[in-house]
Specification:
By secondary structure, this protein is α+β, with helices and mostly antiparallel strands. The chain contains 4 helices and 7 strands; from the N terminus they run H-E-H-E-E-E-E-E-E-H-H. Helices cover 26% and strands 26% of the residues.
Length: 159
Protein backbone atom coordinates (compact mmCIF):
# COMPACT_ATOMS: atom_id res chain seq x y z
CA UNK A 1 0.00 0.00 0.00
CA UNK A 2 1.44 3.37 -0.93
CA UNK A 3 1.34 6.20 1.55
CA UNK A 4 0.29 9.68 0.46
CA UNK A 5 0.35 13.11 2.05
CA UNK A 6 -3.17 14.34 2.76
CA UNK A 7 -2.63 18.00 1.84
CA UNK A 8 -6.35 18.78 2.06
CA UNK A 9 -6.60 17.65 5.66
CA UNK A 10 -3.34 19.38 6.61
CA UNK A 11 -4.53 22.63 5.03
CA UNK A 12 -7.88 22.48 6.83
CA UNK A 13 -6.13 21.95 10.19
CA UNK A 14 -3.84 24.91 9.52
CA UNK A 15 -6.80 27.12 8.54
CA UNK A 16 -8.75 26.11 11.65
CA UNK A 17 -5.68 26.83 13.77
CA UNK A 18 -5.56 30.31 12.24
CA UNK A 19 -9.22 30.90 13.18
CA UNK A 20 -8.48 29.71 16.73
CA UNK A 21 -5.52 32.09 17.00
CA UNK A 22 -7.54 35.07 15.72
CA UNK A 23 -10.46 34.34 18.06
CA UNK A 24 -8.10 33.84 21.02
CA UNK A 25 -6.67 37.31 20.38
CA UNK A 26 -10.19 38.78 20.14
CA UNK A 27 -11.14 37.00 23.38
CA UNK A 28 -8.18 38.64 25.15
CA UNK A 29 -8.19 42.10 23.53
CA UNK A 30 -11.49 42.61 21.68
CA UNK A 31 -11.96 43.30 17.97
CA UNK A 32 -9.39 45.81 16.72
CA UNK A 33 -10.40 48.71 14.47
CA UNK A 34 -12.98 47.85 11.82
CA UNK A 35 -12.40 44.09 11.99
CA UNK A 36 -15.51 41.93 12.12
CA UNK A 37 -16.33 38.35 11.18
CA UNK A 38 -18.96 36.55 9.14
CA UNK A 39 -18.85 32.90 10.19
CA UNK A 40 -20.94 30.33 8.31
CA UNK A 41 -21.32 26.93 9.93
CA UNK A 42 -23.22 23.66 9.61
CA UNK A 43 -26.18 23.83 12.01
CA UNK A 44 -26.55 20.03 11.91
CA UNK A 45 -22.97 19.28 12.99
CA UNK A 46 -23.29 16.95 16.01
CA UNK A 47 -21.24 19.21 18.32
CA UNK A 48 -22.92 22.54 17.44
CA UNK A 49 -24.95 23.89 20.35
CA UNK A 50 -27.57 26.47 19.37
CA UNK A 51 -31.20 27.06 20.31
CA UNK A 52 -33.73 24.79 18.60
CA UNK A 53 -35.51 27.77 17.07
CA UNK A 54 -32.27 28.75 15.31
CA UNK A 55 -31.85 25.24 13.88
CA UNK A 56 -35.47 25.41 12.66
CA UNK A 57 -34.94 28.83 11.13
CA UNK A 58 -31.57 27.99 9.58
CA UNK A 59 -31.65 24.35 8.49
CA UNK A 60 -28.34 23.21 7.10
CA UNK A 61 -26.21 26.29 7.63
CA UNK A 62 -26.22 29.64 9.37
CA UNK A 63 -24.06 32.75 9.14
CA UNK A 64 -23.39 34.76 12.30
CA UNK A 65 -21.72 38.15 12.56
CA UNK A 66 -19.32 39.14 15.30
CA UNK A 67 -19.03 42.90 15.18
CA UNK A 68 -20.63 45.46 17.47
CA UNK A 69 -22.33 43.29 20.05
CA UNK A 70 -21.12 39.96 21.31
CA UNK A 71 -20.44 38.61 24.80
CA UNK A 72 -18.83 35.71 26.59
CA UNK A 73 -16.43 34.73 23.83
CA UNK A 74 -14.57 31.65 25.02
CA UNK A 75 -12.11 29.89 22.72
CA UNK A 76 -10.98 26.27 23.15
CA UNK A 77 -8.91 23.85 21.10
CA UNK A 78 -12.07 22.36 19.56
CA UNK A 79 -14.28 25.41 18.99
CA UNK A 80 -15.62 28.57 20.52
CA UNK A 81 -18.67 29.76 22.40
CA UNK A 82 -20.14 33.22 22.15
CA UNK A 83 -23.38 34.99 22.99
CA UNK A 84 -24.89 36.92 20.08
CA UNK A 85 -27.96 39.12 19.80
CA UNK A 86 -30.88 37.86 17.67
CA UNK A 87 -33.63 40.50 17.56
CA UNK A 88 -32.85 41.80 21.07
CA UNK A 89 -32.66 38.23 22.40
CA UNK A 90 -29.17 37.16 23.51
CA UNK A 91 -28.46 33.55 22.51
CA UNK A 92 -25.43 31.46 23.51
CA UNK A 93 -23.81 29.45 20.70
CA UNK A 94 -21.09 26.84 20.60
CA UNK A 95 -19.44 26.32 17.21
CA UNK A 96 -16.75 23.66 16.76
CA UNK A 97 -14.08 24.52 14.19
CA UNK A 98 -15.03 21.38 12.24
CA UNK A 99 -18.51 22.85 11.64
CA UNK A 100 -17.20 26.08 10.06
CA UNK A 101 -17.79 26.39 6.32
CA UNK A 102 -16.54 29.96 5.82
CA UNK A 103 -14.74 32.54 7.93
CA UNK A 104 -14.61 36.05 6.48
CA UNK A 105 -13.26 39.38 7.74
CA UNK A 106 -14.57 41.80 5.11
CA UNK A 107 -12.75 44.78 6.65
CA UNK A 108 -9.49 43.44 5.22
CA UNK A 109 -10.94 41.29 2.42
CA UNK A 110 -9.81 38.06 4.09
CA UNK A 111 -11.72 34.82 3.83
CA UNK A 112 -11.41 31.08 4.27
CA UNK A 113 -13.69 28.49 2.69
CA UNK A 114 -13.63 24.89 3.81
CA UNK A 115 -14.30 22.44 1.02
CA UNK A 116 -16.15 19.32 2.07
CA UNK A 117 -16.26 15.94 0.40
CA UNK A 118 -19.80 16.67 -0.79
CA UNK A 119 -18.80 20.08 -2.25
CA UNK A 120 -15.96 18.48 -4.18
CA UNK A 121 -18.10 15.67 -5.53
CA UNK A 122 -21.00 17.96 -6.50
CA UNK A 123 -18.65 19.93 -8.75
CA UNK A 124 -17.36 16.86 -10.57
CA UNK A 125 -18.87 14.68 -13.27
CA UNK A 126 -17.58 11.35 -12.04
CA UNK A 127 -18.00 8.04 -13.83
CA UNK A 128 -17.74 5.75 -10.81
CA UNK A 129 -16.91 5.56 -7.12
CA UNK A 130 -13.22 4.92 -7.81
CA UNK A 131 -13.01 8.31 -9.52
CA UNK A 132 -14.81 9.88 -6.55
CA UNK A 133 -12.30 8.40 -4.11
CA UNK A 134 -9.48 10.11 -6.01
CA UNK A 135 -11.07 13.53 -5.38
CA UNK A 136 -12.02 13.31 -1.70
CA UNK A 137 -10.29 15.93 0.42
CA UNK A 138 -9.22 18.14 -2.45
CA UNK A 139 -8.90 21.87 -1.97
CA UNK A 140 -9.33 24.46 -4.66
CA UNK A 141 -6.55 27.02 -4.61
CA UNK A 142 -6.75 29.95 -6.94
CA UNK A 143 -3.35 31.18 -8.00
CA UNK A 144 -1.87 33.14 -10.85
CA UNK A 145 -0.53 30.73 -13.43
CA UNK A 146 3.19 31.17 -14.03
CA UNK A 147 4.11 32.71 -17.31
CA UNK A 148 6.49 30.78 -19.54
CA UNK A 149 10.10 31.63 -18.79
CA UNK A 150 12.31 33.05 -21.49
CA UNK A 151 15.70 31.35 -21.74
CA UNK A 152 18.51 33.82 -22.22
CA UNK A 153 21.94 32.75 -23.35
CA UNK A 154 24.85 34.19 -21.39
CA UNK A 155 26.66 34.59 -24.70
CA UNK A 156 24.37 37.54 -25.53
CA UNK A 157 25.96 39.51 -22.69
CA UNK A 158 29.56 38.93 -23.75
CA UNK A 159 31.42 41.64 -25.67
Amino acid sequence: MSRTIDYGNLMHRAMRSLIQEVLTDVEAHGLPGEHHFFITFDTHHPDVKIANWLVDRYPGEMTVVMQHWYENLHVTDDGFSVTLNFGDAPEPLYIPYDAIKTFVDPSVEFGLRFETQEDDLDDLDLEDEADAADHVGSIEVEEDKPKPAEVVSLDSFRK
